[in-house]
Amino acid sequence: MEKILGLNPEELESVAARCDFKPFVAKQIARWVYVSKVRSFEEMTNISKGNRDTLKHRFQLGTEAPIGKAVSTDGTVKYLFKVETPLGASLVETSAIESVVIPDGDRRTLCVSSQAGCAMNCAFCMTGRGGFHGQIQPADILNQFVSIDEADSLTNAVFMGMGEPLNNYDAVSKAIEALTADWGFGWSPKRITVSTIGVLPQLKRYLDEHKTHLAVSLHNPFGEERVKMMPVEKAWPIKDVVSLIRQYDWSGQRRVSFEYTMFAGWNDTKRHADALIRLLKGLECRVNLIRFHQIPDFPYTTSPQNVMEAFRDRLNANGITCTIRASRGEDIYAACGLLAGQVRKTEVNYLHNIENSHYYD
To answer: May I ask the CATH architecture of the domain 68-356?
Structure first.
């Protein structure tokens, strides 16, 4: 059944026409969905009951409450949502996604999932280890914004949750449109960052079509080393990703950053810092160093604090703005690379045995 959340004005006009509604009903629906953020058709009180019943029987609104919630000692909040992903034809599979709210003073940043699981298979990421479980719809992305307790206090969003956003580009693009359009949530593009490990064809589309910020998961400047942990390097080498990014103007409001998880002895040496400087020299950007959060059966640990600081200082001294990102939500498996890591034993456990995980109702 088609979902209303995520539809643009033209698509809502089509909904109204198919239901034999007056054309102005499309604008009423848009206002209820994107301004009032209603969670049911029954809340659309200036639409007749007959029309509401028609909508209810022919469409889904697209909002669904989370089925799990966990709160970290540092205030980070993680939500678990049930989603349906297509298997082909009319078949669907029930899966799940996670999203995280990170409070920081007056800021409330939502870390959004763009797929159920991930197909990129990065060795150090628990989400990738769990495999790919399917694409989600624009409504599933936007539902993470509207069906959480912090819906009205969010200030920023980062597409850094489960999945590779550019591998579900059409859905992510539609969600960004709804988030930033005047007819939608009306967010400034400056409030949104999309992360990628470097999917070149879709990356070019994204850079041409949107003005939101970009974050690139880099992690090692040497292709022959990067490929051992990030198979995507075979298809789209990081040097080619950076070359494409250099073709765009980053001196205005849109920014590009590079995410660099630090592994002791693997990518934290002076040799790596100098190669990273050469790779990014002259590009207006920022490098965010990230502490690695330990996962089972993985040989590396995070770099010591003094090594991270020396790496940061070397980049800054050579004209590359570099900071060390604070780690948040590790105790509830909400930190970078940990989403879906604790409860994904089987799809049944993931959805029905929440009481045995770190979630509570």
So the answer is: Alpha-Beta Barrel (3.20)
